[in-house]
Amino acid sequence: MKNLEKIDIFNFDLENGKQKPYIPLFFQQFGQAIGSAPVVVVNHALTGNSNITGENGWWNDLIGENKIIDTTYFTVIAFNIPGNGYDDNLYNLISNYQDFTIRDMARIFWEGLFSLKIDAVFSVIGGSLGGALAWEMTVLFPEKVENLIPIASDWKATDWVIANVLIQDQILNNSNDPIADARLHAMLLYRTPQSINQRFQRSKKGNLSVFQIENWLTNHGLKLKNRFRLSAYKLMNHLLKTNDITRGRKDFLSILKEIKTSIHVVAVDTDYFFIPDENRETHNLLNSTKENVYYHEIKSIHGHDAFLIEFAQLAQILAPIFNKQKQQSYVSA
User: Fold this and answer.
1) What is the CATH number for 212?
2) Distance between the two ends of the chain, CA-based, in angstroms?
3) Which residues are the signal sequence here (predicted)?
């Protein structure tokens, strides 16, 4: 793991009016030195972290030397959502996780960028929760973001998302084994019946009476319990339902029609969590008022998690965005 760096944020006012005297913001930097190259901000998903490339990097297929997001050309910044536990210190939000919103986290990320003397970015990109955070970051400072790339995500929490957040919250607060049990439910949201059925085909583990699907789910729950804090899970899950770029603002089109940022909406055709119909509607609405809005769709049997599985398709979608920037710079140089 690349060394974590820390930014100290003091007297931060939350959206609900409360103030946090101190918030440590941990991050990792990859690629070129700050100030020497275009900046790409990568936002992690619910159980993710800032370790996006290198040893155990969760997006190694897309980020690194001579890859789609090329660290020989770009400066890549990945923040940890405060409270996600990756910093491995005592700071957590277990007692007041419901005080925080995605908008708070987006403002915290911008505080971090400004403290690093980064005033504008080539792209903000993220999957799932990270994509929702990318939407909010862009709306906060649209003049500072050249490309918004939300993947398997949405600009608002639908009733379906809110309902599942409630179920997860109930499990996390009432189960005797909260992280593992919540993960069992979540995994079935992240995949599809077709994906599960095709993979396991009602097979059993050896001569035991345990089905392979049961073993697979149990192992996912155990793995997450061994690396993730309960306070982090509660917070990240809660943030999902606070996602709404129109809250306290104008309507969706009024907010975005004046934004010059290029918007690349990436959906998964079988996503049962952030369903593609919502993303298509977003594109159709924006397309009526903006020229630089694009819709891309990953075709996969695997559902929501396809953004962590179908790397070849995702690379093909992202390549024109990042390669164009590199080519333009080479020409101007």
Assistant:
1) 1.10.1740.110
2) 34
3) none
Residues 95 and 143 placed together within one structural domain of the fold: yes
pTM, two decimals, is: 0.95
Same domain, 261 and 151: yes
Last residue in a domain, options 197, 217, 237: 237
| Residue 150 bridge partners (DSSP) | 126
List residues bridging with 34 in a β-sheet.
none
Instruction: Please list the pLDDT of the chain residue by residue as tens digits (333 residues).
Output: 568 999 999 999 999 999 999 999 999 999 999 999 999 999 999 999 999 999 999 999 999 999 999 999 999 999 999 999 887 654 555 568 999 999 999 999 999 999 999 999 999 999 999 999 999 999 999 999 999 999 999 999 999 999 999 999 999 999 999 999 999 999 999 999 999 999 999 999 777 789 999 999 999 999 999 999 999 999 999 999 999 999 999 999 999 988 999 999 999 999 999 999 999 999 999 998 899 999 999 999 999 999 999 999 999 999 999 987 765 654 344
Last residue of a domain, one of 213, 237, 261: 237
Q: Record the tokens describing residue 70, joined without a space.
A: 């090329």
Total number of domains constituting the chain? 2
Cα 210 from Cα 223, distance rounded (Å): 19
Residue with tokens 């939407």: 135
